[in-house]
Each structure stands twice: as structure tokens, then as C-alpha cells.
């Protein structure tokens, strides 16, 4: 069904190129296949630090052009894939680098929850409990950002108080198999929180970089 839908879309709109916003989104595989058959230019954004090394749905060298964070990514492209660097542009990290406004530090801590594959949920809840008590003692607020794509509704209920604010990941960052109606690509709210936090606690994550 998806191939039929993609074919109809290409025939109707007659694009000259297709821009893939995430190189590891498997739901785009059919569209990528059709683009190659129809000889369309294929552009891609490397949207996370680990997508070049571990998370890819297609051969990187099949892209006509890649948009990457920085020149370090160029080294990975050349070393691991012998990619033609004339086809790679360093554009920064779009979610945050597009915003130049600076914010002053405020009285709160931010905790970025890791993927449960890296840290058991029971351990994460222990960390949350500790931070909750610590912030209560020090009269601080606590911002918590769940890992994208993980259902944390039960945690929301367990730690439901005025001190904690959960940052729900925007659909644009979750690779969901559904339409995204939000017109805002940049996550300005998260950008503010990163700058305003007195302390940021996280693990191996895109936000670290």
C-alpha cells in the first residue's frame, strides 16, 4: 500500500529531488526505493550522532547530498564509507543551532532520561526519586525529558507534583509512523530549557553533543 501511495505522490507532484529528514527511518524505505527507480535526486539529513555508525536503513553512498552537523561527521563519512565530501555540507544541529537567542540560568535542574536499553527503568525511577527529594530539599524545580518513543504515562502519575515538569518529546523528533501536523520544526522550548538549567543530567545522547 505504501509503495502505491508513494508512487501516486511522486507522479502527482513531480519532484526533482526528495529530502529525507532522518537517515534511519525505516518507514521511508519504500520512498527511497522509488526515488532511485525514478532517477530523482536524493538528499538526506543526518539527524543524530549515532546514525552514521549504527542506525541506517540504506547505503550512505546512495545519497546525492548529505547535510551533517559538523566537520567531525565528514571524517566519519570519509573513513567509514569513503563518501565524496563534495556532496556533504556541515549545517549545524538544526533543532538548536538555528536559535541564537541567549537565556539566563534559572533555579531548576534538568534530567534527560536515557533509553531503557542503556539503563533499566527501575534504576531510572530511583534516580527520579532521588532528584525529586533533592529538589524538594533545595527548593529547586525539576524538568524531566523522557526518551523519545517510550511510554512514560505511569511515571507521570507516580511523580505528579508541582515541582516536576515532564517535557514531552515533540512528534518531529520521534520517527513515528503517522502524520505530523506541527509546522514548527525547531524545538525552541527544549533549547530554552537547556540554556536555563542550573544543572543538566544526562547519559549518552544527542543532547550531550
What does this structure look like?
The strands form two sheets. The protein has a four-stranded parallel sheet. Strands 7-6-5-8 form a four-stranded parallel sheet, with helices on both faces. The two termini are 38 Å apart. β3, α3 (71-81) and β4 form a beta-alpha-beta unit. The longest helix is centred in the middle third of the chain and has 18 residues, at 121-138. α1 (2-13) crosses α2. It is built from seven helices and eight strands, in the order αβαββαβαβαβαβαβ. It is of the alpha/beta class and 209 residues long.
- SSE order, one letter for each helix or strand: HEHEEHEHEHEHEHE
Looking across the biggest beta sheet, what order are the strands in?
1-2-3-4
Q: Given the helix and strand composition, which structural class is it?
A: alpha/beta
Mean pLDDT: 79
Radius of gyration: 20 Å
Biggest β-sheet: count, sense, barrel? Answer: 4 strands, parallel
Proportion of helical residues: 25-40%
Strand content is 15-25%
- Shape, principal axes of CA atoms: elongated
The end-to-end distance, rounded to whole angstroms, is: 38 Å
Are there runs of 5+ residues with pLDDT below 50, and where?
A: none
Number of strands: 8
Q: What is the overall number of helices?
A: 7
Oligomer: single chain
Q: Care to give the gist of this entry?
A:
The chain has helices at 2-13, 29-37, 71-81, 94-97, 121-138, 153-158, 188-196; strands at 17-20, 41-45, 65-68, 88-90, 108-112, 141-145, 164-166, 199-201. By secondary structure, the protein is an alpha/beta fold. The strands form 2 sheets. Strands 1-2-3-4 form a 4-stranded parallel beta sheet. The chain has a 4-stranded parallel beta sheet with strand order 7-6-5-8, with helices on both faces.
Amino acid at each position: 500500500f505504501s509503495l502505491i501511495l508513494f508512487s501516486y505522490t511522486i507522479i502527482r507532484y513531480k519532484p526533482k529531488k526528495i529530502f529525507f529528514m532522518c537517515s534511519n527511518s525505516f518507514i521511508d524505505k519504500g520512498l527511497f526505493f522509488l526515488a532511485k527507480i525514478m532517477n530523482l535526486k536524493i538528499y538526506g539529513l543526518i539527524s543524530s550522532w549515532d546514525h552514521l555508525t549504527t542506525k541506517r536503513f540504506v547505503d550512505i553512498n546512495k545519497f546525492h547530498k548529505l547535510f551533517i552537523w559538523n566537520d567531525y561527521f565528514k571524517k566519519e563519512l570519509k573513513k567509514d564509507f569513503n563518501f565524496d565530501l563534495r556532496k556533504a555540507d556541515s549545517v549545524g544541529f538544526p533543532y538548536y543551532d538555528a536559535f541564537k537567542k541567549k537565556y539566563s540560568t534559572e533555579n531548576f535542574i534538568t534530567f534527560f532520561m536515557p533509553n531503557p536499553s542503556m539503563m533499566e527503568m527501575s534504576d531510572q525511577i530511583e534516580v527520579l526519586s532521588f532528584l525529586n527529594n533533592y529538589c524538594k530539599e533545595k527548593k529547586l524545580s525539576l524538568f524531566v525529558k523522557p526518551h523519545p518513543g517510550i511510554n512514560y504515562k505511569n511515571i507521570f502519575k507516580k511523580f505528579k507534583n508541582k515541582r516536576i515538569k515532564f517535557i514531552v518529546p515533540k512528534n518531529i523528533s520521534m520517527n513515528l509512523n503517522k502524520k505530523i501536523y506541527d509546522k514548527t520544526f525547531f524545538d525552541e522550548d527544549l533549547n530554552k530549557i537547556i540554556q536555563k538549567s542550573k544543572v543538566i543530567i544526562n547519559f549518552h545522547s544527542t543532547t550531550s553533543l
